[in-house]
Amino acid sequence: MTAHEKPEQELPDLVRYDDQTVRNFTLATLVWAGVGFLVGLVVALQLAIPALNFGLPWLTFGRLRPLHTNAVIFAFAGNAIFAGIYYSMQRLLKTRAVDGLSKFHFWGWQLIIVSAALTLPFGFTTGKEYAELEWPIDIAIAVVWIAFGANMISMVRRRREPHLYVAIWFYLATFATIALLHVVNSVEIPVSFLKSYPVYAGVQDALVQWWYGHNAVAFFLTTPFLGLMYYFVPKVAKEPIYSYRLSVVHFWSLILIYIWAGPHHLLNTALPEWAQTVGMAFSVMLWIPSWGGMINGLFTVRQAWHRVREEPILRFFAAALIAYGMATFEGPLLSIKSVSALGHYTDWIIGHVHGGALGWNGFLSFGMVYFLVPKLWGKEMYRKSWINTHFWLATIGIVLYVVSMWVAGITQGMMWMAIDHASGKLVYPDFVETVLRIVPLYYVRALGGTMYLAGFVVMAVNVAKTIASAKTVPADETVRAPAIFKVGREWFQDQKPHRILEGLPVALLTLAFLGVLAGSLIELVPILTGAAYHDEVTWNAVNGAAGAIPRTYRPLEVAGRDIYVREGCYLCHSQMIRQLPFDVLRYGPASTPEESMWDHPFQWGSKRTGPDLARVGGKYPDSWHYRHMRDPRDVSPQSIMPTYPWLYRQTLDFAELPTKLRALRRVGVPYSDADVANAEADARTQSGEIAAKLASDGAPAGTETREIVALIAYLQTLGKMTPAPTKVGGN
Amino acid sequence: MADERKVNPDEPVHEIDGIVELNHPAPFWWQAIFYASIVWAIGYAGYYLGGSGMSRKEALQQELAELAAKDVRPNASPEQELAELKAIYTDPNRLASGKAVFTKNCASCHAVDGGGGIGPNLTDKHWLHGDGSIGAILKVVREGVPEKGMPPWGPILKREEVMAAASFVRSLRGTTPAKPKAPQGDVVEPKADF
C-alpha cells in the first residue's frame, strides 16, 4: 500500500520483465491454433464425406480427432494461457519469472506438442479422451507442468506487491488441480515404449477419466481463462473491475463445486447411481458460480460499453464472456438426467463444447493476442480494420457451427428416443436413417469451421505483417518497484480474512488444493476401493454369483481390442447401453458394471456417430465384419464410416502377446502363468479358426496373420463375455 | 452506468498494476438463484440418496414392462397368421411394402434381389432353416438364427413389417438374381404353405 504513495523514482528496485517468454508463447499460440483449427476442419469434413481419409490410417477420423482435441486444448489454449500468465503475473507481482524455468517450460511444452503430433496420427494412444498421450509423454507433461508451477511459486515468493490479485488465485488453482488430475488419471503400466494399460478398468476407469475430462475443461479451459479475463478485460476496457467481493465468492464456489461434477458425463450408465445423483446436483449448483465470472467481466465491460463499438479487442472480450455464459448455462442443463438422455452421445455435445472453445477460449485468446502483439513488438497492429473482419468471420462461423450442431444433435436424439405408441417399438430402428437426416448439417458445420479458420488466417497475416514491420525486438519492459514484500506481524492488522489469505500465497494454494482434493476423494474413493468391479474375489464376496463374472479376453481378442483402441473406434461408437428404454430397445439389455471389469481402458465412449457396440458380438457373421471394415458401404450402403484397408495388409505381432498379458495381469486381469505361456499359440489357433470361416465365406486365404482377424475376434466378444443377462434392465 | 455509480458510490477498494477493483454487491438475482440451487441440490440429492426416489434401474423395468405390454401379438393361431400372410402375398401394394422393408434391413446380407452374399441365397430351393414355407420364413425373420448371425427382427420391426418382409421373401422363390450365391442346405419342398 505504502509503495504506491512514494514517487516512482524513489522506489528501490529495478525490475526487468521477461517479455521474450511471452513473445515465444504468443507465437506458439498462433502456430498451433492454425494446426488445431485445420485438423478440426478436416475431421468435420470427413464426417460428411468418408472418402476423405483416402484409405490412409494416419488421415482417418479416429486418429485425427485426438490430434485435433489435443492441439486446440493443450497446444493452442495451453500456449495462450502461458503467454497471458507470464505477461500478467510478472506485472501483477512486480517481479521477473525465473529464466531457466521459463525456457524449460516453453521448450518442454513445445516438445510435448510435437511428440503428440508424431504419435497420435500413428495410433499411439491410451484410448482415454483428452488424455490420449502415451506414458513417456505423460511423464514429460508432469515434469514440465511442475516447472511451470515452480516458476509461479517462485514469482509469488519474490513479489513486490503485498496482495495477490484475483487472476493469480485462478492461476494457482489451475496449477494445483491440473497436476492432481493428470497424475491420477495417467497411472498406467507400460507394455512397451509407446503402449500402456491404465491401472483402472471399466466403471472405475470411466469415473476417473470423466473426473479428469470434466475438470480439464474446468481447470484448463475455465479457471486460467477467467484469470486472463480478470487481467486483460480491465486493461483493454480501461475500467475498474466491477466487484471484488463477487470475485472472492465465485472463485471459491467455482473451484469447490466444479470438481464434483464429472459424473454428469456418465448419466444413466452403469456408474453407481449415487455418483450420478451427486454429479448432477453439483452440476446444477455450478451454473451460478460460473456466471459470477461472466457478470463480473460483462459489468466491467459495460462501464465502457460505448467503446465496444470502436475497440475490436473489447468486442472479442465481450463476445467471449457471452459465449462463456451460454456454455456454462448449457452445461448444467445437459447435466440434468432427463436432458442428458436426449443430448448425450449426440452432436449437441459437440455444439456445446465448441460454443465454449471457439467463443470463450478462442475469442479471449484472440483479444489477448491483439493486445499483446503491439506491446511485445512495439508496433501498432498492421491493419486495425482486419481485427474487425476477423471478429465477424469468426462470429458468423461460430453461429453456423453451434446452431447446426444443436439442430443435428436434438434431431438425432429425438429420432433415437422415438417410440411408436401403438406397438411399443422404435420408430427409427435403422441407425443409418438417423445419420442421413443430419449429414446436411455436417456441411453447415464445416462451413462455419471454414469461416472461423478464415478469420484466424486474417489474424495470422495481420500479426505476421506487424512483426515484420518491427525492425528490432524491443528491450524487456523495465519498471521501478518497491522492495520484495515480507509479511510482518503488523501487516495482519486491520485486514479482512480473505485479504490476509491473498498475502499468504502458499496458504491460498494449499487451501484450494485441499478443497479440490477432498471433493475428488469423496467421489472417487468409494468406487475405486469399496466396489466390486476390479477383482474376482471381491466381486464374488459382494455378489455371491461367480457365474456372472465375465471371462477374460483371449490373447487374440486382446490384440483386437488394442487395434480398436488404436483406431479410435470409441470416438464414434459407445459400448454402454444406458438404463433407458429406447437404448434397451435398440441395443439390448442395459450394460452392467461387471461387463467391463477387465477393460483397461474402458471403452464406454462419449459419442454415437455410429451405433453402440456393447452387444454387437454375434449379431453379424464374421464375414459381415470382414466386408464392413474394408468398405462399410459394401454392407450398409449409406454408412458414413471410413474404410480400414490397412487392417487387411498389416500383420499381427503374435510374439508381443505374452508381454501384453503380463502387463494386463499387473493391472489386475486374472491371467494364469499358463495363459501367458500359451498366449501366442492360442492366438494362432483362434485366428486360424476365424480365417478358415472367412475363407469358406469367400475371403481370400491367408487372413489368419492379418490385423482384421484380431479385430473381428474382439468385436465378436462384445456383450458375450458374461452369461446372457436374464433381465433386460441388467442385473 | 455512470448514474448507477452515483447512487451506489462504491469506492475503489484496491489498485494493482493499474487495475482498480470496485466492490459492488453481487446482484440480488445472482445470489437468489445460487441459494435456491443449493437448496434444490440438497433436496434432490437427499431424495434420491435417501432412497425415496425411484432408481433409474427400477424405472427402466417399469417402462420396459409398459412397452412390452403394447407389443403383444394379436391372439392369432398359425392358421390365421397364414391367412394374413396370404393376404399380403396376393396384394401387390402390401408386397411392395415388404420389398421396402427387405431392401432397408435385409439386402446388406442377402442382396437386393435375394441372391445372397453374407447370408444365403433366398431364391433357390435350398434351405438351411426350415422348409422354405412361408411359416418357416416368418419364424426365421421373427426369431433370427443368432448362432449364424441372422438377427431376430421381431423385437425390432413392427409386426406388420415382419409379416410383409416374410411374404416378400417367399415371393423370391424361383426368381433369377443377378449374382446368385452357391446353394447352401438341402433341397426341400415347402409343406405348410399356401
Structure explained in plain terms:
The complex is a heterodimer of chains A (731) and B (194). Chain A has 731 residues and is mainly alpha-helical. Chain A folds into two domains: 501 residues, Cytochrome C Oxidase, Chain A, CATH 1.20.210.10; 164 residues, Cytochrome c-like domain (Cytochrome Bc1 Complex, Chain D, domain 2), CATH 1.10.760.10. Chain A is built from 28 helices and four strands. Chain B is mainly α. Chain B has two domains: 72 residues, no CATH class; 110 residues, Cytochrome c-like domain (Cytochrome Bc1 Complex, Chain D, domain 2, Orthogonal Bundle). Chain B contains eight helices and four strands, in the order αββαααααβααβ. The relative contact order of chain B is 0.12. Classes of the chains: A mainly alpha (731), B mainly alpha (194). At the A-B interface, helix 3, helix 8, helix 9, helix 10 and helix 22 of A face strand 1, strand 2, helix 2 and helix 3 of B.
Topology:
The complex is a heterodimer of chains A (731) and B (194).
Chain A: H1 2-5, E1 13-16, H2 19-48, H3 61-93, H4 99-119, H5 135-157, H6 166-185, E2 188-192, E3 195-198, H7 202-220, H8 223-237, H9 244-258, H10 273-302, H11 305-310, H12 312-334, H13 337-343, H14 347-377, H15 384-417, H16 431-436, H17 439-469, E4 478-481, H18 497-501, H19 505-530, H20 536-543, H21 555-566, H22 581-587, H23 622-630, H24 632-635, H25 657-666, H26 673-677, H27 679-696, H28 707-715
Antiparallel strand pairs in A: 1-4, 2-3
Helix pairs in contact in A: 2-3, 2-4, 2-14, 2-17, 3-4, 3-8, 3-14, 4-5, 5-6, 6-7, 6-8, 6-9, 6-19, 7-19, 8-10, 8-14, 9-10, 9-19, 10-12, 12-14, 12-15, 14-15, 14-17, 15-17, 21-25, 21-28, 23-28, 27-28
Chain B: H1 2-7, E1 14-16, E2 19-21, H2 28-49, H3 56-70, H4 78-89, H5 92-105, H6 107-110, E3 126-127, H7 134-143, H8 159-172, E4 186-187
Antiparallel strand pairs in B: 1-2, 3-4
